[in-house]
Each structure stands twice: as structure tokens, then as C-alpha cells.
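To the team - phosphoenolpyruvate complex, inputs and output below.
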Amino acid sequence: MRKKIVAGNWKMNKVDGEVKTFLSAIKQLSYPSDVDLVVVPPAVFIKEVTNVLEPKKIYTGAQNCSEYEEGAYTGELAAKMIRSVGAQYVIVGHSERRAYFGEKNEVLALKIDQALANNLTPIYCCGEKLEEREAGNHFKIVEKQIEEGLFHLPIEEITQCVIAYEPVWAIGTGVTATPEQAQEMHVFIRNLIVKKYNQQIAEKIAILYGGSCNPDNAKELFANLDIDGGLIGGASLKPEEFIAIANSFS
Ligand code: PEP
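Output:
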């Protein structure tokens, strides 16, 4: 049985008071015990979020980490710092990092290494742009992202990773991939893992869907065999919506 995971990426949203309001509200809500819930706030809030949510068995994550271990890299956050304030997960290669900060697969591979070396579970994001899908190149693009970002890992490490398929055209747009489009890509990704490693390894790795996932469409998406949960942006900012998504597994 693979883990079911719902992770909420707050991106650059919320100030101190809003974080406190979110935390008081989410503590009151319930969700199935076989779902791992991960709140991914801006890094300045990780410690506070962890302190409040750890007793509720809700995990915390960071939105990015440096490819370097430590040192003179002003403004960067090392994986070991993130781990030291209680986070368990880190998102690597979100499409916004790729698009606005020029992060390439080669650098993302180094970030994955830093995450794993510091006991963080990387959530590695992949996904095609609209024009790439329209040109029929979506499988090729995702294959390259996965190969260059993840497939340098040995078997013991690839099983520590989570993958998030996030078609760029679905992120923050209100346009969700159809369950069929999502399932088709998740099967494709799982088959890449079978080819590179083996079936047993592929069965272990959670593959999340991300892109305008909300309480109205999560059930239909999560009903698919290869969709093991979601990476949620906008809908993760409201505790009720986020928890409603975690309650959407059948
Ligand atoms: C995301 O940013 O990872 C995401 C999926 O955003 P949204 O849910 O808002 O589309």
C-alpha cells in the first residue's frame, strides 16, 4: 500500500496573524488517519507551524532548499536548516521555481541530494506547459524532468522520494487536468520508474497530482489507481478546503 499524501503549498501567502488563525482552525478539523497531511508554509513560519501541528501528526515542509550544504550563499536556505526546525518534506522543482528562478533539472538533482542527505522527503515536481502538451510533447518533457532530476538516485534513495505531476497549465488557473489525463501521466511516470528500477520500487513511490485541485474535483482525481494524493496550492490556504481535499479519498 502506498502512502496517501495531501500537501498544501502556501507559496508566498499569509502573514503572522493569518498563520495563527489557520493553525487554530485546522486543529479542530478531522481527516482520515491513513492520509499524511503536509503543510508547506513560507520558511519563516515552519517552526511555529511544526510546533502547533506536530502533536496532531500533521507534517510540515519547505517550498525550496539550496543545492549547497551551507556557507556564503546569501538568502538561501540549507536542507539541514529546514530539517532542524522540524520540517519533514521539501518541495523541489515547483514550476514557479523553474519559470521565475531559472531552476534547471541539473540543479534540482543537487537539491534532491541535499534533501535526502538531511532526512527530508523531497516532493519533486514535474509537468509540461500548455504549448508542450498541444505539440504532443508532454510525455517527453516529463520524462526528461524525471530522468535528469531523480534517476541518478540509487534504489534506497528513490524510494524516499515523492513525485508531483503538475501540468503548468493547470496551476492556479482553475483548469484542472481531467482524471484521465492525470491518470495517464501518472501511469507513464510509474512505468519510467519500472524501466529504470523495477516494478516493486515503482509500486512504492507516491505520485501526487497538482493543478487547481479543490474539494469539488479531488474525489474524482484520487479515485484513480495511480493518483496517490495531491499537491495543493490555492485551496490549501483555507483550512476547511484543505481538509475537505484530505477527506476525498474513497
Ligand atoms: C501548486 O502551486 O503546486 C498548485 C497546484 O497550485 P493550485 O492548486 O493553486 O493550482
